[in-house]
Amino acid sequence: MFVGWVGVGICLKNIIKNANYHFNYSNIGHGSYLISTNGYTWSHSVKEYNSSNKCFSFNINDIVYIEFDPIAQKLRFRKNAGKDKYELSIVPPPAGDAYHPCVNLCSTGDSIELIYPGMPLS
């Protein structure tokens, strides 16, 4: 459930930790590759895809599937097993850092449910 802005994707742990878990989205280099409820994309490495309205939006009860492909250097999103799809290009993580699942919750009371591979979708 969410009342505000929510972003989902992957983040570079050390960059996020060094920023004290604050999402410094105004410039690239913030450590996140996300899509958000309002249809925006957030890219750590490509200015044209950072804070840009290029994706599908999602709401309460939508399921957003995320596929991390480190070989092709892509992050793929799909909504509700349907036609709404989006793909972000990513860069390899810097030495000593790694990508982790990431959620950006902006309002008190916001929450999401993580569904891992193999878990039934109820």
Write up what this structure looks like:
By secondary structure, the chain is mainly beta. The strands form 2 sheets. Strands 4-3-2-1-8 form a 5-stranded antiparallel β-sheet. A 3-stranded antiparallel β-sheet has the order 5-6-7, with no helix packed on it. The longest helix has 6 residues.
What global shape is seen?
A: globular
Structural class: mainly beta
Quote the beta fraction. 25-35%
As residue ranges, the low-confidence spans are none
What is the number of E strands? 8
User: Structurally, how many domains make up the residues?
Assistant: 1
Helix and strand pattern: EHEEEEEEE
Report the span from N to C terminus.
16 Å
What is the helix content? under 10%
